[in-house]
């Protein structure tokens, strides 16, 4: 009987390991930029504040947005300004080991007004305190944690796949067009 339990546990552990392996293989980014961002995200906890700001700015750029880094003295609580068509977003990055409090929400809310931004975001992989969520809700500040960053990396992967598909399609169209315009004339030395 005891051997049957161990066998069942072993089979269960093998099944769980296989499912995890399959899910991870399916969900891992396939394109170069997304893979690099995912690799860097795995070590985000070891990044300094400025390194994390660079990572976030590069992530927005990979999604096709213009991202201007401010940082340092005089940034008024805004590390990055992300430009969408007709809209500017003030972003504050916090790479803390614990959940971020409402001070970050206050700072980016004020900084967004100072930098003429229509929206304000805080990006913090460790998440947020209840007070931060409450203040964000009343001020309209958006909060993004580690799961959001993972979703953005998947979005980069999707965008890159679409670009690759469009390039391949353009190449195929160019080849087909060249074939239509090409004419073959036999050379006198060609066998008949």
Order of helices and strands: HHHEEEHEHEH
CATH architecture of the domain at 54-171: 3-Layer(aba) Sandwich
Please give the CATH class of the domain at 54-171.
Alpha Beta
Strand order of the largest sheet: 1-2-3-4-5
In which range does the helix fraction lie? 55-70%
Spans with pLDDT under 50 lasting ≥5 residues? 18-26
The tally of helices reads 6
Over all CA atoms, what is the radius of gyration?
25 Å
So what's the overall shape? flat
Précis, in short:
The model is unreliable at 18-26 (pLDDT under 50). The longest helix is centred in the last third of the chain and has 36 residues, at 146-181.
Give structural attributes.
192 residues; 12% strand; 5-stranded mixed sheet; alpha/beta; Trna Endonuclease, Chain: A, domain 1; 57% helix
Report on this model:
- The protein has helices at residues 2-27, 32-42, 49-62, 102-114, 130-139, 146-181, and strands at 66-69, 80-84, 87-93, 119-123, 142-144.
- It is α/β, with parallel strands linked by helices.
- The chain has a five-stranded mixed sheet, sandwiched between helices.
- Helix 5 links the parallel strand 4 (119-123) and strand 5.
- Helix 4 (102-114) packs parallel to helix 5 (130-139).
- The longest helix is centred in the C-terminal third of the chain and has 36 residues, at 146-181.
- The chain is flat, with a radius of gyration of 25 Å.
- The model is unreliable at 18-26 (pLDDT under 50).
Write the layout of secondary structure elements.
Blueprint (H helix, E strand, L loop, with lengths): L1 H26 L4 H11 L6 H14 L3 E4 L10 E5 L2 E7 L8 H13 L4 E5 L6 H10 L2 E3 L1 H36 L11
Parallel strand pairs: 3-4, 4-5
Antiparallel strand pairs: 1-2, 2-3
Helix pairs in contact: 2-6, 4-5
